[in-house]
Design goal:
Elements (H helix, E strand, L loop, with lengths): L1 H31 L12 H11 L20 H14 L4 H29 L2 H13 L1 H8 L7 H18 L3 H17 L4 H14 L4 H30 L9 H8 L17 H8 L3 H18 L1 H16 L11 H21 L4 H13 L2 H5 L12 H20 L22
Helix pairs in contact: 1-4, 1-5, 2-3, 3-4, 4-5, 4-6, 4-7, 5-18, 7-8, 7-9, 8-10, 9-10, 9-16, 11-13, 13-14, 15-18
Length: about 425
């Protein structure tokens, strides 16, 4: 009975943290007037510009032209969310901005709860609770919730739910985790397609670490893939009808590949428009997006084919930029705060990973995310902090494990017995709650 009461009390603390996260972001919204954007482009960037066309009844159109042109430049899910708010509260209005930022703050609060639950499943309730508080107070998490309109804050929420379902699938074969996990994978891909390589790595993890055997794990992976494809299929069909060719979700892979791989590229970002003569730009403007992307993809692949060692060098620079404390290609007045916050989290996460090294199934699940999610950015370009942010809440989870471990080792008297359990974790952190 005491354990049940403690669990209920801990869950209440998690809810309080989530509520505090929402109120903190709402306070920043009001105090800094973050809904007042300097330009329409800053109001959601490509997502806002495309949502404007949808709200005006012109369909899913390109953000780069003054007249509507069919587009698949962005993933559809968040565009339609913004378009719905535009339709109800006005296109580019302050009211719409406030509604969207409050929605984003709700998603951030949901991320706190999802990380808490994942932390409980991976480690203990205390680790989950500290991780939830860390996500609530993490400066970049606050920044992306109310100072930028876009899907970057929604992706960690969805990823935390997916990781939880994958962990449960490895432990048992409950159909609810299989169905929910597959649907969440499809929905997340429609929010941010960069997650797709992670799905492949996660399925490999499930095949290795499933307690129910390889055969069942393989069938689970097939079902997950089927449900993911089923969710994506309507948008892929739309793209085929629109462009008369296969486009899975988005078109700009070739463009992004050329951003990072060109004769004047620095490995992180280079404005590719400088590579085209005026008549070439005019020719590209006459083509639809897939045709434009094919040309840019061919240029990037030709550069990579002729310069393989340069590509490797640039890729290593992108890896370093993705995980580094400071990104010189994304200047901002908040760079110092971001660098300090992320640096502390990253270093503590490495310690947490070392402390949990004996819990291979749990730690390798997180490592599958760290390995798979950035792969697209490694070969294209790493120009903005938001590309890394979706994995940072999970670094906070490992950092929380490290902080609690150190705290218990410092506060537990030596005569009370061994601090570290047989599995390498502090006795208070040995096993899930």
């Amino acid at each position: 009975m005491r354990q049940i009461q403690d669990a209920i009390g801990t869950h209440r603390w998690a809810l309080a943290i989530a509520l505090g996260a929402f109120l903190l972001r709402a306070g920043v919204l009001v105090s800094l007037a973050t809904y007042d954007f300097p330009s329409r482009w800053d109001y959601g960037y490509e997502y806002g510009a495309t949502a404007r066309w949808v709200a005006l009844g012109e369909g899913f159109s390109s953000p780069n032209y003054e007249s509507p042109r069919p587009s698949a430049l962005t993933a559809p899910a968040y565009v339609y969310l913004i378009a719905t708010v535009f339709h109800l509260f006005g296109v580019y209005s302050e009211t719409s901005a406030i509604i969207l930022e409050l929605l984003q703050s709700l998603f951030a609060a949901g991320t706190c709860l999802a990380v808490y639950r994942l932390g409980c499943a991976l480690f203990t309730q205390r680790v989950g609770l500290l991780a939830a508080a860390g996500v609530a107070l993490y400066p970049p998490a606050i920044f992306f919730s109310v100072m930028r309109i876009g899907p970057v804050h929604l992706v960690p929420l969805l990823l935390a739910l997916i990781l939880f379902d994958l962990l449960k699938l490895a432990e048992n074969s409950q159909r609810k985790h299989l169905a929910r996990g597959g649907v969440l994978m499809g929905v997340t891909a429609l929010v941010e397609p960069a997650v797709l390589p992670f799905y492949a790595v996660a399925c490999a993890w499930l095949l290795i670490y499933s307690r129910r055997g390889f055969g069942l794990a393989l069938r689970q992976c097939v079902v997950l893939a089927f449900l993911t494809i089923l969710c994506i299929a309507p948008w892929t069909i739309r793209n085929y009808v629109t462009f008369e060719r296969f486009v899975l979700i988005k078109t700009p892979m070739g463009m992004n590949l050329l951003y990072g791989n060109n004769p004047r590229g620095n490995g992180v970002y280079q404005n590719i428009h400088d590579h085209f003569l005026p008549e070439e730009k005019a020719y590209l403007d006459q083509l639809d997006e897939p045709a434009q992307d094919d040309i840019m993809s061919s240029m990037a692949l030709e550069f990579i084919r002729k310069n393989p060692f340069t590509f490797i060098r640039l890729t290593l620079r992108r890896v370093a930029a993705f995980w580094g404390f400071y990104n010189p290609y994304s200047p901002s007045r908040y760079n110092v705060l971001r660098g300090l916050a992320y640096g502390c989290v990253a270093l503590a996460a490495l310690i947490g990973l070392a402390l949990a090294r004996h819990r291979r199934r749990e730690t390798t699940l997180l490592l599958s995310l760290f390995l798979g999610y950035p792969l697209v950015y490694y070969v294209t370009h790493v120009s903005f902090y938001r590309y890394r942010f979706p994995v940072e809440p999970f670094l906070i989870l490992l950092a929380s494990l490290a902080v609690l471990t150190v705290f218990e080792r410092l506060s537990t008297p030596a005569q009370d017995g061994p601090i570290v359990s047989s599995r390498g974790l502090p006795s208070g952190l040995d096993g899930p709650a």
